[in-house]
Write a structure and sequence with these properties.
Layout: E1 8-14, E2 20-24, E3 44-52, H1 62-77, E4 82-87, E5 100-107, H2 132-143, H3 166-176
Antiparallel strand pairs: 1-2, 1-3, 3-5, 4-5
């Protein structure tokens, strides 16, 4: 699993930077929980900025920029969202404590065959590191279900905690013998 650098400040904006959609100063942000598609397969565009205040992150070198881009791609593609990452700054002398910006264009793999139904989307097992909340949203999007209509449950017939992972939920079910 790819992780954000230590002491990162991450901010996700609407495309024109008029609205902050998510922010984290604890080096933790699951982008897949904040990017939303319009339900018809069209792309959505966002702006993300990252600053890092760590001793081993002095300047936005090409290597550092590529590490962040790897995290961006992993976070979204691991839940089946395709992404194009476009740098808004140039690597080089810029200090890492100053925010580096990227434009993210996200979309589902294929355009739906008819409204509310997706044809040709990649259906695969959820990664064990994906959050329950992310997978619930993904199922709602793919099948055109209303928001909040999908709920993963534990063997005890209780709602799985949204922040728990799919791996945790699988482990609970395997221990239950069901």
């Amino acid at each position: 699993m790819r992780q954000w650098p230590p002491h990162s400040t991450i901010t996700l904006y609407s495309r024109d930077k008029s609205k902050v959609l998510a922010t984290s100063k604890r080096s933790r942000l699951a982008l897949s929980e904040y990017v939303h598609l319009d339900g018809q397969g069209d792309a959505a565009t966002y702006l993300i900025t990252v600053s890092v205040d760590a001793d081993d992150w002095d300047h936005w070198t090409l290597e550092n920029v590529e590490k962040i881009e790897g995290v961006l791609r992993y976070d979204l593609t691991s839940v089946g969202i395709d992404v194009a990452v476009v740098r808004k700054n140039r690597p080089g002398r810029m200090l890492c404590r100053n925010a580096f910006a990227w434009e993210l264009k996200v979309w589902l793999e294929d355009v739906p065959a008819e409204p509310g139904r997706y044809a040709g989307l990649r259906f695969k097992a959820a990664k064990k590191t994906a959050s329950v909340k992310t997978i619930q949203k993904r199922v709602e999007t793919v099948f055109g279900l209303p928001r909040g209509s999908v709920q993963l449950i534990t063997p005890g017939k209780k709602a799985a905690a949204p922040k728990s992972t799919v791996g945790d939920l699988r482990e609970q079910w395997s221990r239950s013998g069901t």
